[in-house]
Amino acid sequence: MGGQVSVVTGGSGFIGSHVVRQLVAQGDTVRIFDLNPPGAGLGTEAAFHQGSILDATALEQVLRGAGRLFHLAANPNLWARDKSELSKVNYEGTRTVLDAAAKADLERIVVTSTETILKSYRDGSSAPISETSPLPELKDLAGHYSRSKMRADMAARDAMASGLPITIVNPTVPVGEGDVSFTPPTKMILGFVDGSTPAYLDCVLNLIAVQDVAAGHILAAEKGRVGERYILSGENVRLGRMLEILEQITGRPMPKRKVPYWLSYAVGVVSEFMADNITGKPPIAPLEGVRVAGTAMSFDNSKARNELGLELTPLADALGQSVEWLRAEGHLKAA
Fold it and tell me: Which of these CATH numbers, 3.40.50.720, 2.160.10.10, 3.40.50.1370, 3.40.1260.10, describes 5-174+210-234+298-312?
């Protein structure tokens, strides 16, 4: 269903750029609202409006005459030296976006949440998480990023209750091409493939092709029910199995050495202390990332498949697309 005017906050980002491409391909008039200009292939097909999601006036202007809003803009990092920045962008930014949306005549709003708010890092169960699983309390989330996104999620639910036509989507770990901002999943893959990460914590995670996440956003706007949540998840896989697939794809040896959780946690504590107080540079192992990795992040995607018709790319193909993009962009060291 094309031909609509769609605004995409964060439309220059990893997931957002794929949402923009797919909306343009189906005939929408697309407005990108982002601090950063779009990459190659987007600028001529979608109108770029530079701005911050903390700027209410700019948001009201870009939403004027639009029919749909996809709110993806966020700080996706698991560490920031100034912890308040995560809350400022992810929570206060979402509130500002939704306040502006309330003044516009929008047919549908899709708000992007995250997988990390769906399970307490203290929960040791391995059962797959679904939309009916109870949400954890703020204090039981893994860190500042997850708490900022939970508060944003709460703001979206409050706006739903006030009558805004909102659907929430929770992507799991997106992989694929075009991650120019190098979000944590792409950094993880690059570290293994270029040999800079020599060992791993064998955790359970859920990986999904970024183009499938983008398609899920659009399907949520077209087929999703207002007031509902949809988990956009792909394959539940152990990290060790992901490394086997990467080895088959690249021909490069992947790490075989596993590290215990207690050691990963200790490295996280030390490296984050150094980052916060001495270097000011991102830590080797953000403590929030270690806590999430120590939690079995397994998900049930049946609601998105059955209600939205979400189709999934095989995991090996998605990982191959990520590796090929890294190679084409010159990010891989020589084998």
Answer: 3.40.50.720
